[in-house]
């Protein structure tokens, strides 16, 4: 199997930080995902934390307009009459008049589409991005993340990160997600409250441009009809799981309270359609499973306490969504149980054609884990077509993200049971003339 390319910077390609795959995944990300919260997990070193704190401080917007053809008729009668456009042409006109799909996403590395790479000036190297984009994109995957599949399903291009200035087009929305982010304030530089502040700033400047007669990225109607997605809390809950269990309820209540405040601010700024993800089965992450003792695991091999903390968070988050559904007038709030989706990939892995549910694609040592804690990198790299869910022990492969996206968009794991496409094209749609 092919190993990871470490790369280098010289000549025309010089400048910036060139991050090798081992440093990228096992320092920049594993450190933030776990150590920023608990600073105690054994697989993170102090040097890795230093690396994290140092590093973490397409153009395709034009829509072609089609014109209806007119034909000359009744020449013998001495007049010119425009015939009605054929049905196909009328459908095309209606499609052109439909408002564009606009999305705003708030999250961490599970939905980061290159934000942390842009913010830190990090040039991530192959084999990241190899399966779909065929080049590194800043996603912590060999291909797409879940939100990319959402965009594809909704007929819009992938969301550009907020801090990616070169080549970005924000006419279909913005991705504020950043790897390592938390809900909790002050733990990560781009915590949820900062991401929401960035959105408020973006909205203000965008509307200001329209008021000045300039072409802004998103109109007032675009903001009002947009879908606001949230996939964050994973890093917080790994940290909570490594604290005394009698403190969990208080900590989780505080974290969910921050989510409430974030959603309330978005609502006050015109948001009406919310798609909220619960956290996944964190106790099934290979990077954590390989460290746990046998007595710490459930019947399927996942870490019991970590999953118990994730479930406790999801319960309170679901209750919050129920409450907001009642109190936020005119809003649609959909909660999706990502724990059930991702846990099923382990508990019933053969149903999905998965042979090794804890197998890491980019790792070392071979099955059943391919995750050697003392040897980071891609010494043993799975084939691109392999049905392996985990890319690096923490994040999903393109294959895994595709599975999760398909199930989450179906509405079967959501409350209320609403399909993603139905929400974006219906729900609490309003126009800028509404109060």
From TrEMBL:
Record Gene3D superfamilies: SGNH hydrolase
Query: Which segments cross the bilayer?
Result: 23-44
Q: Which family does it belong to?
A: Belongs to the 'GDSL' lipolytic enzyme family.
Q: What residue spans carry the region label Disordered?
A: 76-96
What keywords would UniProt list here? Glycoprotein, Hydrolase, Membrane, Signal, Transmembrane, Transmembrane helix
| InterPro entries the record matches | GDSL (IPR001087), SGNH_hydro_sf (IPR036514), SGNH_plant_lipase-like (IPR035669)
**Pfam family of this protein, just one?**
Lipase_GDSL
Q: Which GO terms describe its molecular function?
A: hydrolase activity, acting on ester bonds
- Which organism does this sequence originate in? Paspalum notatum var. saurae
The entry's protein name is: Uncharacterized protein
């Amino acid at each position: 199997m092919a190993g990871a390319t470490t790369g280098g910077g010289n000549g025309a390609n010089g400048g910036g930080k060139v991050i090798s795959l081992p440093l990228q995944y096992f320092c920049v990300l594993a450190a933030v995902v776990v150590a920023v919260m608990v600073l105690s997990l054994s697989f993170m070193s102090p040097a890795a934390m230093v690396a994290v704190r140092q590093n973490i401080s397409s153009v395709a917007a034009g829509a072609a307009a089609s014109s209806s053809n007119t034909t000359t008729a009744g020449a013998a009668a001495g007049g010119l009459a425009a015939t009605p456009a054929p049905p196909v042409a009328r459908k095309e006109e209606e499609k052109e008049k439909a408002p564009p799909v606009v999305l705003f996403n708030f999250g961490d590395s599970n939905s980061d589409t290159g934000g942390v790479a842009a913010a830190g000036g990090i040039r991530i190297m192959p084999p990241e991005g190899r399966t779909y984009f065929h080049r590194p994109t800043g996603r912590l995957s060999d291909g797409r993340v879940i939100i990319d599949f959402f965009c594809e399903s909704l007929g819009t291009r992938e969301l550009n990160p907020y801090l990616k200035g070169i080549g970005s087009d924000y006419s279909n929305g913005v991705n504020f997600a950043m790897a390592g982010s938390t809900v909790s304030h002050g733990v990560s530089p781009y915590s949820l409250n900062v991401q929401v502040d960035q959105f408020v700033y973006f909205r203000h400047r965008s509307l200001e441009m329209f008021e000045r007669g300039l072409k802004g990225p998103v109109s007032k109607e675009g903001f009002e009809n947009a879908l606001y997605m949230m996939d964050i809390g994973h890093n917080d809950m790994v940290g909570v799981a490594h604290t005394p269990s009698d403190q969990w309820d208080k900590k989780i209540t505080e974290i969910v309270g921050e989510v409430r405040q974030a959603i309330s601010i978005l609502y006050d700024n015109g948001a009406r359609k919310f798609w909220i993800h619960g956290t996944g089965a964190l106790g099934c992450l290979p990077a954590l499973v390989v460290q746990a003792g046998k007595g710490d695991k459930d019947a399927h091999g996942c870490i019991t306490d970590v999953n118990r903390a994730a479930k406790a968070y999801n319960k309170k988050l679901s209750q919050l969504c129920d409450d907001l559904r009642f109190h936020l007038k005119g809003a649609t709030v959909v909660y999706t149980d990502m724990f059930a989706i991702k846990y099923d990939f382990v508990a019933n892995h053969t149903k999905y054609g998965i042979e090794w549910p804890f197998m890491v694609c980019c790792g070392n040592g071979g099955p059943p884990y391919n995750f050697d804690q003392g040897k980071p990198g891609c010494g043993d790299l799975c084939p691109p077509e392999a049905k392996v869910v985990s890319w690096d022990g923490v994040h999903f492969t393109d294959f895994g993200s595709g599975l999760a996206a398909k199930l989450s968009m179906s509405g079967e794991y959501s409350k209320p049971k609403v399909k993603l496409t139905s929400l974006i094209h219906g729900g609490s749609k309003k126009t800028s003339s509404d109060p």
